[in-house]
Here is the input.
Amino acid sequence: MSENYLSQSLLQVRPSATIGMSQKARQLMEEGRDIIMLSQGEPDFDTPEHIKQAAREALELGHTRYTNVDGTAELKAAICEKFQRDNGLAFGVDNINVSPGGKAVIFNALMATLDSGDEVIIPAPCWVSYPEMTRLCGGSPVIVPCGAESGYKLTAEALERAITPNTKWLILNSPSNPTGVCMTPEDLTAIGKVLLAHPNVLILSDDIYEHLIYSGHEFCTIAELVPELSDRVLTMNGFSKAYAMTGWRLGYAGGPEWLISAMRKVMGQSTSNPSSISQWAGIAALRGSHNFMDEWRTAFEIRRDFVLSALKNMGVSCAVPGGAFYIFGDCEKFLGGRIETDLEFTEVLLSEQGVALVPGSAFHAPGHFRLSFASDMETLKAAMTRLKLFLER
Ligand code: PMP
Ligand code: GLU
Here is the structure.
């Protein structure tokens, strides 16, 4: 037997480049190479102590068994409070899904709804997993390129052009992975107006970077801005980025009851519930103090400004991220000659200078690279020195 034995849907799927690049970097480290990994989208901070304490207590109290498939009643109640408090969204517990990670929330939603021929509109640059998950679930990704000229944002006109009778979903992600670009309330309201005229389109709002917003920017989400759409919006969020809980595998969403119940059915025949311990920790995260976030945001903003100015000095242009912890640099002018593509750019950079970035083509935006600045300043300084040496060659 060989690869031919794999399913047709899996054969069409590209492996995750963010994970792939980081794995490659880890392997080189194990071989003894001095590697700086700026490829993975993961805060470098530790999970706050009060959240870890809640997990210890959950263990002591014996919360070690299966829970409701899509989340405990207690965690769902805390999520309803969060949506009301932060986003003005009024959900009941029957509107809430909790899955093993934000990634799993998206997968469960697509799995529950996509048939062959269904289209999912994905503005690009986009997170690596949206198109591939769409394919894995049998649907067709419709990538809408949103370049520097539109500030890497989806416009109402581009959305209108992309919608067809087969459109099932539109995926929105602000602040964006990989650009960090934030949609304004005006941007989202204009998009909402287009969607009002297309009642068969579902909307997935991936709000996972909600709390990582820098000065001069504000977070907004479409279900709050255009409430007439709320019966077909799935507002997704998670614990990985905001609370530095990537390893705990916990994500959630609020949406219409029919969709939440369908996602529960998918989970009941696949993963079952997310870890019981993580769910108890999640309650402490949502209800506990959020003071640590200001400190994290300040640290991220200082790092962002440092990397932006270092890149500018090297002649690399990029969008100024209003949120998240990524910089999406344009490397087009460094291509040609010994390095022809963004993929080669990241490969040669890794092998010659030991710096791991992710090529823009993985985000459907060739000629770019993504750099995660979720590392300490010393590491970022060393990375910039190496990148400069690389670009000068
Ligand atoms: N959406 C976006 C845009 C992301 O960058 C990530 C991080 N991988 C996720 C969803 C999922 O994160 P997790 O599964 O760790 O909650
Ligand atoms: N979201 C992160 C990233 O884009 C984590 C890796 C992944 O799941 O893609 O790097």
